[in-house]
Amino acid sequence: MKTMRAKLALLLALPLFLAACSASGTASRGAPGGGTGDSFTNISAPLAVPAPEAQKAGGVAVGAPAPNQGLPNPVAFNADRNLIRTANIAMRSKDPWATSERAAAIAVGYGGDVLGLAQSGNGDDRRANLTIRVPASRFDDALNQIKQLEGEVATSNVDTKDVTDQFVDLQARLGAKQSEEQRYLALLNRANTIDEILKVDASLANVRTQVEQLTAQINGIKSRTEFSTIVLSVTPLTPAPIDNTVKGWDPAKTLARALAAFGALFQVFADLAIWALVFGFIPLVGLAIVAVATRGRRAPTAPTAPAA
Predict the structure, then answer these.
(1) Within a domain: residue 32?
(2) pTM (2 d.p.)
(3) What is the CATH number of the domain that holds 193?
(4) Which residue, 79, 80, 212, 250, has fewest beta-carbon neighbours within 10 Å?
């Protein structure tokens, strides 16, 4: 009877033991590393990889905040500027007309064009004035090639004007006016009365005029920045005169120089005589005054006694 009771007790305790073992196994699987108890609270937490290992793998540590999260990527500054470049060259050449025509051919060869060419004079007094424009990317090449033409460069200067700010401002104003034009078009579509249509149409015409003006200014600046201007002035190259005269004794020139010197000397003496004649009475008056004063100061002589 006791044996039966012991077997019944074991049978009743066996399900409880199995349930306890099952709960312990579930807890062990839920906590890596075999932890129990409080380790259940960290089941959903992401595992952090040590920073050195993450750096060796070339990545960012898991669980660490990503750098610059929510910030835009840095944008490189655009170094391109809107520049208007103008060169002025003054040259002297044996044939200014031919030199100016060669310079014009250089501009055309670089993809530019001739804005103006004036040739004047004849013979050895020919002159030429040329205005050309070349693509801005070939400006330096064209300038150097023109300087190497036959002749010599008297003066050369390059003027550069930065219009980047003006160009950006015009583009911003144009964008604003185009947006305003679209708003007026939307209002025109919703206008119901003739009066509303006329008012919106007048405002729309004004905005379109401003859009056209801004577009023309932008196109003008683009044309001057995409093409650079070169102004060339060519004058004749006159050689220095050569003195072929043989220097020797010339009695006629010697006599002429002597006569010229004598005339100058005579003029000096004549001038002195005229001055003495005009102002000669002044010293005479002075001498007379001195003589009168001296005579007045002389003491009177005593009268001599008559002889006995």
Answers:
(1) no
(2) 0.48
(3) 1.20.58
(4) 79
For residue 20, the one-letter residue type is A
pLDDT at 66: 40
Question: Of 135, 161, 187, which residue constitutes the final position of a domain?
Answer: 161
Residue 242, token pair as written in the block: 């050569």
- Give the Cα separation of 234 and 99 in Å (integer): 8
Using CA atoms, how far apart are residues 269 and 117, in angstroms rounded to an integer?
65
Candidates 92, 90, 99, 100; CA nearest to 130 is 100
Please state the domain count of the chain.
2
As given in the structure block, the two tokens for residue 195 are 């009066």
- Taking every pair of C-alpha atoms in the chain, what is the biggest distance, in angstroms? 227
* Sequence-ordered alpha helix ranges (H) in 191-298: 194-226, 251-279, 281-297
Domain hosting 123: range is: 83-161
171 and 154 fall within a common domain:
no
Starting at the edge strand that comes first in sequence, how are the strands of the sheet with 127-135 ordered? 113-120, 127-135, 227-236, 83-93, 152-162
Identify which of 150, 99, 166 has the alpha carbon closest to the alpha carbon of residue 127: 99
Owner of token pair 């600046």: 221
Angstrom distance (rounded) from CA 31 to CA 40? 7
The model's pLDDT over 66-93, given as tens digits with 9 standing for 90+, comes to 444 333 333 333 447 889 999 999 999 9
CB 234 within 8 A of CB 99: yes
